[in-house]
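Course assignment 3, question 2. Fill in each field.
Student: A.L.
Task: Predict the tertiary structure for the chain below.
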Amino acid sequence: MKTSISRRQFLAVVGAAAAVGALSACGSSSSAASSTAASTAASTAASGAASGSASGDTIKVGLLAPLTGDVSVYGIAVANGANLYIKQLNEAGGINGKQIEVVEMDEQGDATQAVTCFTQMVDEGITALIGDVTTTPTLAVVAESQDYNMPMVTASATAEAVTYDAETDTVYSNVFRTTFTDPFQGIKMADYATDKLGFKKAGVIYQLGADYNEGLATNFETEFAANGGEIVASETYSAGDVDFRTQLTTILAAGPDMVYCPNYYEDVGQILSQAADVGLDVPFLGGDGWDGVTQYATADQLDGCYFCANYATGSNPDFESAYEAEYGEPYPNGFSPLGYDAAMTICGGLQAAEDAGLEAGTDEYKQAVIDGIKNGTFEGVTGTFTFDDHNDPVKTAAILSFENGEAVFVEEY
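Answer field:
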């Protein structure tokens, strides 16, 4: 039987109180306190500090994210979205009368630190995990989680290997995600480029050695060629590079109709600026790492560009207004709605285990959470989704373009 969990079931009036959660610092606690998510969680830590197993009135859930460091913009967004959902759920009565107690830790964007945080959370009695956020730390936690069969849902780690080991044809049965995968994004944008936009010749530029960037680029190139298109130039750069003119000049000489640029928005902004400098005046396309690029590129540079994302501004006003009421500012990027949906997914599994009358933290309970997620249908902020054989969400992508320098929703594709 499928469990249907709707965000509307738990939507409550959101006040100005801090997000529910007990912050357990993993790493520099002083640094963690400086982040938005950590600050809101710390404000309630005194009333909900975690120790040992969950009581009969609470269910402990881990929340692992980079709240400080280079990728904290993503971690804070995910944590805020997740905490918002859990606050709403608790205010609506929790799960069968039990409150969700969040054990939140900052892994600072580091894989080793992420594993340390995870094992500390296990010692503190969590029965499920929301996280991690970026791919490399998530992969490290996935490996560690196998010994515990710990139910975990990442909001944003997109590499195929997070849920599936292709070399051994093994699905990590305890691991799920609410974002779509790197292969999905690359294929989706190749299809959109050829079938909807009519492009025939593509250049590609991406960061070498990064799972996200390489995953999108490889799958785009394969699908674009399969659709009858031609990859006329494929250029790479290294992490930390700031001058892309040589690669862009090579692409310009190859005569593309478009350029696929599956990188994060900071790099994308520089690439678009330098493309204009060398005279490469064709549309650029990208993936969900472009979310936020409007702060790094001009309206002229973004004109005619497209990217795919899990969420488009304006598609869920309830979420957007609740987020702003809670945190005093609009949601920062698409990672916040994904964090909200990751928390919803975990809580859907918890609901199934609680309905079965099992004891939180036991092996039977954790397996019931996993089964509840696997068999569930979730009506989330980013759409209604189920899970496929690799524990990836079955969902559409939002295609966005730009008007006057602002990202605008085009269509679901």
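Instructor remarks: The first helix runs from residue 7 to 10. Confidence is low (pLDDT under 50) at residues 1-25, 27-54.
Grade: pending
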